[in-house]
Design goal:
Blueprint (H helix, E strand, L loop, with lengths): L23 E5 L4 H12 L3 E6 L40 H5 L6 E5 L5 H8 L4 E4 L6 H6 L1 H21 L4 E7 L22 H19 L3 E7 L1 E3 L12 H11 L3 E4 L5 E2 L1 E3 H11 L7 E7 L5 E2 H12 L5 E4 L14 H7 L7 H12 L1
Helix pairs in contact: 1-8, 3-5, 5-6, 7-9, 7-11, 9-11
Bound molecules: nicotinamide-adenine-dinucleotide.
The site of nicotinamide-adenine-dinucleotide has 30 residues, from α1, β2, α5, β5 and β7.
Length: about 375
């Protein structure tokens, strides 16, 4: 990596975000949990930000409040007000007027499988962060056609339109799901891929498409294999809600936490702030990547039972476990080897699991 990447302290933004100053970035899925946290960081770094999101699981209210200071649920939903943007009719939006950020995020409500919407969204952008995806593994099994359109065709269109718009940097969001249900622990980027669900197959295909895009157009692109991300704005509801969001909600409501199986399953839980850092580092064209894949986690395994203890420590509320039979397609253990991201991206996950839990808890109470 060239030395100058971490030496520029022009504004108050962290060093890894400095390269985004003055850039125009498209964040697909930017109204969702991880995407909206990336939007915050980009705006804080002085980038102009466009969001393309169909709001299927995301919420436009995530774009008008800072995650650590206010709750999205407390704000009015701009899409129920007049003037919401549909399928890229125009890029100036209602949100632009009401966002708290000085540059203003611009929202286009549209689907990544709609080439017209993607073309309008990516026009004039130098960077693309592609997060839009159907995120339910079980849903991908039951609705493979919808999943194909959203996650595989959508990614192909985002890459095709990025090439036509001469975007200089693309980051694709992959998942630890590509390692299958019984991965080697810790999992390394060179491990074989196992397509245990349409979701995992789609992420593996997205990585291949991203590498092909980078090589065919000789341009910067990377894929990030995210492990179990948690933090402010993550959904706590639904049958497949992420464990931490669901457990914190249970603590809030003083209800038991549902554990499938024994609760001895382990996961590499990673605070979203570290994931945002990884995206901004991976997007820096000075790394000169050609579709490389990187694991993004803390590199540490925590069991669901340990997680309940940590939640008791930070919230002072001890919630009892409610044990249910194990779910199909639940992997017993998962943990990332993050040495490649540390070495090649200078990834430096500074927010610990406990600190991440504290921040998430504070965003709820
Ligand atoms: N949360 C995790 O632990 C985790 C782990 C691995 C990978 N990922 C990946 O990270 C990305 C973001 O996930 P998240 O956890 O923030 O979930 P999320 O549901 O909050 O975000 C997904 C966003 O994409 C939007 N979207 C879905 N399909 C779309 C489409 N076809 N066109 C336009 N917008 C669409 C949704 O409305 C939502 O705003 C996804 O690609 C997901 O697969 C997440």
């Amino acid at each position: 990596m060239p030395d100058n990447i971490s030496q520029n302290f022009v504004s108050g933004a962290p060093d890894y975000a400095q390269h985004m100053r003055g850039a125009t970035a498209l964040v697909t899925g930017g109204a969702g949990f991880i995407g909206s946290n990336i939007v915050d960081a980009l705006l804080a770094a002085g980038a102009r930000v466009r969001v393309l999101d169909d709001l299927s699981t995301g919420d436009a209210r995530n774009l008008i409040v800072k995650s650590t200071t206010q709750h999205a649920q407390d704000a009015p939903n701009p899409n129920t007000q007049s003037g919401a943007i549909k399928n890229g009719d125009a890029i100036a939006s209602t949100l632009e007027k009401i966002t708290a950020q000085p540059n203003g995020a611009q929202l286009i409500v549209g689907n990544v499988s709609d080439a017209h919407a993607v073309r309008r969204a990516v026009a004039g952008c130098s960077h693309v962060f592609h997060l839009a995806a159907m995120v339910g593994i079980s849903q991908s099994v039951h609705e493979p056609d919808k999943h194909f359109n959203s996650n595989i065709l959508g990614t192909e269109i985002v890459l095709r339109e990025s090439a036509a718009a001469k975007v200089s940097s693309v980051v694709f969001t992959s998942s630890s799901a590509v390692y299958g249900l019984t991965p080697t622990i810790p999992s390394s980027e060179s491990d074989p891929l196992v397509a245990a669900s349409p979701y995992a197959a789609g992420k593996a295909q997205g990585e291949t498409l991203t590498e092909n895009y980078a090589r065919a157009h000789n341009t910067h692109a990377a894929s990030l294999r995210l492990f179990n991300v948690f933090g402010p704005r993550q959904s706590a509801t639904g049958a497949y809600a992420a464990a931490i969001a669901a457990f914190l909600r249970a603590a809030q409501l003083r209800e038991p936490a549902t554990l499938f199986g024994t609760g001895d399953q382990t996961r590499d839980f990673v605070p979203v702030a570290n994931v945002v850092q990884a995206f901004l580092r991976a997007a820096d064209p000075r790394h000169n990547l050609r579709g490389e894949r990187f694991n993004i986690g803390l590199g540490r395994a925590t069991s669901l039972r340990q997680l309940l203890d940590m939640i008791a420590d930070i919230s002072e509320i001890r919630i009892p476990p409610r044990l249910l039979p194990p779910r199909d397609a639940d992997s017993p253990h998962s943990c990332a080897d993050i040495s490649s991201a540390i070495c090649k991206l200078n990834f430096d996950p500074q927010v610990s699991m406990l600190e991440g839990l504290r921040q998430t808890w504070q965003s709820l109470v």
